[in-house]
Amino acid sequence: MSAMRVLIGETAHARYAGLLRQAAPELELHGSADPLELAHWAVSCPLWLGQPDLLAPLLAQGHKPQWLQSTWAGITPLLAADLPRDYRLSRAVGIFGQVMAEYVLCHLLAHERQLFARLAAQVERRWDDRLPQSLAGRRVLIVGCGDIGLSVARFLAPFGIELYGVASRARVLAPFLEVAGLDQLPRLASQADYLINLLPDTPATRDIYDAALFARLKPSALLINAGRGVAVVDADLVAALQQDQLAGAVIDVCRQEPLPAGHPFWSAPHLLLTGHSAAPTEPRLMVQLFVDNLRRYQAGSELRGAVDFVRGY
């Protein structure tokens, strides 16, 4: 029946189709990464699954699903002012926690163990016998305490880390010692050894890491941005690194991707670029989420990751 026709707009559409045929053989699947093919099938498919950057152009052309399941946690392309909002939209939730935690832990340990300094010393044939310290007792501030941020905190807790959080509003949330509202970011950031941004892109979360905030950081602090590039004022971060206002930055997400050749991030001191690789979508987990949400959709229930268009997530 027509309600079971699914459009898969994904670079890896064949992989998704294969997994979906096993998990929900009753579905009629039409997948592509080609804009013309997607537009052709969009007319007859009420259910869409895929990347916001591939599906947003279909909305701009006047096509509209009954329900769209994003394969990304971020849905910014679908929130453009000229696009419709009278359909059900859900974003990817519950599938990025471990892989994001592995990314964060990797860079926390690399920083504590001075991994890159030791690599540089080896290249220079210089014996580096400085002793590292432990993550135990370090203060980590996770900015963005939703599904992913909470998962990261739970993975870090066994290392004896003091966990603090910033969210849209203050709340009590284990294992955090404190979760404060966004207005408390300057206070908590000034006390943090590690500042980890996991915020979505909303008007309230843009340009919040600026010169004033960097001036408050410990000179030994490390910034990790795996949320959205627009949260960081690029020029202010470069200047802060040049002035040793913080020890370093790990930048996974940028305002423009790929990063332009002349961008100062390429040569900024103590800045590591990781090319938007922190938490890739695992198709197997994504298909499990889609099938679960499909059952909820058919039952008229609340979708996991249901998006509030007004909030933007």
UniProtKB/TrEMBL annotation:
<dbReference type="InterPro" id="IPR036291">
    <property type="entry name" value="NAD(P)-bd_dom_sf"/>
</dbReference>
<keyword id="KW-0520">NAD</keyword>
<keyword id="KW-0560">Oxidoreductase</keyword>
<dbReference type="GO" id="GO:0016491">
    <property type="term" value="F:oxidoreductase activity"/>
</dbReference>
<dbReference type="Pfam" id="PF02826">
    <property type="entry name" value="2-Hacid_dh_C"/>
</dbReference>
<protein>
    <submittedName>
        <fullName>Phosphoglycerate dehydrogenase</fullName>
    </submittedName>
</protein>
<dbReference type="GO" id="GO:0051287">
    <property type="term" value="F:NAD binding"/>
</dbReference>
<dbReference type="InterPro" id="IPR006140">
    <property type="entry name" value="D-isomer_DH_NAD-bd"/>
</dbReference>
<feature type="domain" description="D-isomer specific 2-hydroxyacid dehydrogenase NAD-binding">
    <location>
        <begin position="107"/>
        <end position="278"/>
    </location>
</feature>
